Amino acid sequence: MGESSSSVSLDVERISFGGKEHYIHTHHGPVSVAVYGDHDKPALITYPDIALNYMSCFQGLFFCPEAASLLLHNFCVYHISPPGHELGAAPISTNVPVLTVDELADQVADVLDFFGLSSVMCMGVTAGAYILTLFATKYRERVLGLILVSPLCKAPSWTEWFYNKVMSNLLYYYGSCSMVKEHLLQRFFSKEVRGSSHVPESDIVQACRTLLEEKQSTNIWHFLQSINWRHDLTESLKQLECRTLIFVGENSTFHSEAVHMTSKIDRRYCALVEVQACGSLVTEEQPHAMLIPMEYFLMGYGLYRPSQLNLSPRSPLSPTCISPELLSPESMGIKLKPIKTRMSLEV
User: Fold this and answer.
1) Are 217 and 50 in contact (CB under 8 A)?
2) Which stretches of the chain are assigned E, i.e. beta strand?
3) What interhelical angle do 127-138 and 101-115 show, nearest 10?
4) pTM
5) 248 in Cβ contact with 149 (< 8 Å)
6) Alpha-carbon distances, residue 250 vs 58, 156, 275, 278, 281 (angstroms)
7) Residue 122 three-state SS
8) For 5-44, what is each residue's pLDDT tens digit?
9) CA 157 from chain center: how many Å?
10) What b/e string do you get for 310-328 counting C-beta neighbours within 10 Å, with b at 16 or more?
11) Which residues contact 65 (CB under 8 A, 6 or more apart)?
12) Could you say which residues form the signal peptide (predicted)?
């Protein structure tokens, strides 16, 4: 753990689901970070979507044995929660100023400073993917790679802005009512797992619904307001030089956004994986579909699953360790056009 400074300090820390949760005061307010693993290993930063935290956004991926062995063997994982999205968070007053997306990205930099991390791998989902992409454009030297799931990169369309505005008003006046929860579940999951009048909801949707009931509505409102006033990153994407792996569900509301983002990043550094019969939250709905592309992606950094290499990485990642022949999407095992993978769905 890095030493605290006058502007970034540790507030409280507690044990949480096998990891240690830290409350850190940043330049723009407190933020919760749950840390799992050996601090001597390379760092993986995660950031969830609206109304989610690391347990509801990344649990499916990290509970998948093959993915867990790949990620936890190679990284110390730092799960950053948006302000007020951590487990048991107190409500944030609506009188507290809403943070801009740039301020949220700067919070990530403060977290890295606190833990003494010079450069990191990043994994984000939708709104969280936007924050980490923005962080990568502002602090290019601190990001070694991006793994993005159904990412946002443009300013909201009028349709998205309108729906978010309606949801913001519902949150403000009525809290996490049934309409808000249904809208969020549609944002996260495909119809196949949301169920219908004839087919019950899947376990992952039921679990997410339960977790949404525990969230503070004003805290969701704050993050939604920030994201609804985000700016377009398209021009900045052209300057990104870190390798980027993008996953998007075939049925994701943000499918076109992911395709647009892929087209704007240098094709030498970016690949897109489309997951069939899946919504935006690939990490929960079809985490197995992420395994093989992530394996090839991380091989470019000299990182392998423990069955392939028994040595555990003990030093920060460095771009110099990437073999030149692994820099192209073809050598990552990923085609330049979207790959479609289909996973069998449990009924």
Assistant:
1) no
2) 9-16, 19-26, 29-36, 43-47, 76-80, 120-125, 143-149, 243-249, 270-275, 339-341
3) 70
4) 0.86
5) yes
6) 19, 20, 6, 6, 11
7) strand
8) 444 444 444 444 457 899 999 999 999 999 999 999 999 9
9) 21
10) eeebeeebeeeebeeebee
11) none
12) none
CA of residue 38 relative to chain centroid, distance? 21
Extended strands (E) in 150-269: 243-249
Lookup: tokens for 1: 């753990």
Nearest by Cα to 146 from 236, 234, 44, 66: 44
User: Which residues partner with 145 through β-bridges?
Assistant: 121, 243
Q: How many CA atoms lie within 13 A of 235 on its CB side?
A: 2
Residue owning tokens 């030493």 = 3
pLDDT tens digits, one per residue of 288-301:
999 999 999 999 99
Dist CA 230 CA 225 (whole Å): 9
The Cα 113–Cα 3 span in angstroms is 9
Tokens coding 88: 């048991």
Q: For 286, how many CA atoms within 13 A lie in the half-sphere containing its CB? A: 30
pLDDT in tens, 37-64: 999 999 999 999 999 999 999 999 999 9
